[in-house]
Amino acid sequence: MVLRLLMRKLRKQQLVLSDYLTMLAILIVLARSIIGTVITLWGDNNYHNPENFTATEIYQREVGSKLTVANRMLYKVYLWIQKSVILLLYSCIFACLPLAVRIIKFFWVVLLVTFCAVQATTFVDCHPARLFWQVVPNPG
Prior knowledge:
Elements (H helix, E strand, L loop, with lengths): L1 H9 L6 H26 L12 H39 L4 H27 L16
């Protein structure tokens, strides 16, 4: 992704929408790396020691669990950004074919609908939502 942006810069080409989406994808990858590090260091509510937790451990695991949910959402955003970049590429390649343009527009709608559905499944998974990060008692 970085190489793509560097090549645009070296060739003195203007940035287009797919380049900005690529920059956003890079930021999301960096954010996921930072979040993953915090989750690894602090843990989440999936790992339970047989001993009692201190208040600090409970706090850290709750934060880790909340970050896990955020990390899942960011990963899905990252995937759909990459799919959008591919659709933009197809739009450029097939811009002169009327049928292809209509098909690509249809797939933009499909991409939006599937993105909303996939993000919704993150929260449908567990009810009530606070159980995502509950540490004590074990939410099961």
